[in-house]
Design brief:
By secondary structure, this protein is of the alpha/beta class. The protein folds into two domains: 178 residues, Glycogen Phosphorylase B (Rossmann fold); 156 residues, Glycogen Phosphorylase B (Rossmann fold, 3-Layer(aba) Sandwich), CATH 3.40.50.2000. The chain has a six-stranded parallel β-sheet.
Length: 353
């Protein structure tokens, strides 16, 4: 089949969602389909730009391209999944969350605008009108599926996929550091881990990697306190070889996002056989973790994160057992791209029978 993947792209920003789309394209091609990505730039400020973006996708004709019929469209992110096509399947990475679970929180992009409330109503309206038009609606996690059910009464099926580094990660020796790999942004809450260094009783170190506009802010936070300076290393952007080494040789992996959609870091830690320290309100980041089994669930406070770090540092045998259980669990899940492709394309293939 000729398949278009429709997604929204914030220019100059690349992360898990972009890897998700790239890997889906590769998997579709590997399965024998002809696939390509259609992406429009997304701007969320001022709020009228959100409406313009949604209308742009509604106005697109993606039924054919250069005289070639498009047999199927896969919609991924708001507002791209609003595009019209008679054979559309959605695999929702996330909706526009400021209209839903982020509304009224510190992460709400719309609260300071006079037309913010009206924009939230618009987003909810178009989601509820156009998402159900798809042949099938998948979510990329149980957490995303719950949100659509809670806020829009739209039912979807969770469809899990392997993280980008699944085949490259392997167990390694226990180091003396806690590793936090993620883009530096407020919702990832790296500052909680940095502040936890003040409260550590063990000799554990902390290593963070990831780029972002807030790099200088985190560097300043580390430099502001001698104890933090001695414990915390901020690597910034690192090569793929280095990030695999950091996973492999860590004592544990810490991941503290607020209400994450899916959580590649959690799965990658499990593939690397490292115990996880995850915030209880981490959403999709907690879906595969049972407290005390594959890792430790913590309150999102520096004190509780420090307690968990000390617990793993001072009982390395238990930390290793947790990591081993995590790897066994994720391998048993048999996450695979061929399974994803089969499920996504099935509703359209059945139409052609």
């Amino acid at each position: 089949m000729n398949i278009l993947i429709c997604t929204a792209q914030v220019p100059f920003v690349s992360g898990g969602a972009e890897l998700h789309v790239a890997n889906l394209k590769h998997a579709l091609i590997e399965a024998g389909h002809e696939a390509d990505v259609v992406a429009l730039p997304f701007k969320w400020y001022p709020p009228r730009e959100i409406i313009r973006g949604a209308l742009a996708w509604r106005m697109l004709d993606v039924t054919e391209a250069n005289g070639k019929p498009v047999d199927m469209v896969i919609g991924m992110k708001f507002p791209a999944y609003l595009v019209e096509h008679p054979r559309k399947v959605l695999w929702v990475i996330h909706q526009y969350r400021s209209a839903y679970d982020m509304a009224g929180t510190d992460y709400d992009d719309l609260h300071s605008y006079a037309d913010g409330a009206a924009t939230k109503m618009f987003v909810k309206h178009v989601d509820e009108k156009f998402i159900p038009r798809a042949l099938k609606v998948y979510a990329n996690s149980q957490n995303v599926a719950r949100r659509m059910s809670r806020f829009n009464n739209i039912q979807s099926e969770p469809l899990y996929h392997p993280p980008p580094r699944a085949e490259s990660l392997s167990p390694g020796p226990q180091g003396d550091y806690i590793f936090y790999p993620s883009r530096l942004e407020p919702q990832k809450r790296q500052e909680i881990l940095i502040e936890a260094a003040r409260h550590l009783k063990s000799d554990a170190k902390i290593v963070l990697s990831g780029g972002g506009r807030s790099l200088a802010q985190y560097e300043s936070l580390i430099k502001s306190d001698r104890k933090i300076r001695q414990r915390v290393e901020l690597r910034g952007f690192v090569s793929e070889v280095e990030i695999l080494k950091l996973y492999r040789e860590a004592l544990a992996v810490c991941y503290l996002p607020w209400d994450e959609d899916y959580g590649y870091v959690s799965l990658e830690a499990m593939y690397a056989a490292k115990p996880l320290i995850v915030a209880r309100d981490g959403g999709g980041a907690t879906e595969f973790i049972e407290d005390g089994s594959e890792g430790l669930l913590v309150d999102p406070t520096p004190e509780d994160v420090a307690r968990a770090i000390d617990e793993l540092y001072l009982d390395r045998k238990r930390a290793q057992q947790m990591g081993d259980r995590g790897r066994e669990k994720v391998l048993a899940m048999n996450l695979s791209w061929p399974n994803v492709v089969e499920k996504l394309t099935r509703p359209v293939i059945e139409l052609f029978k």
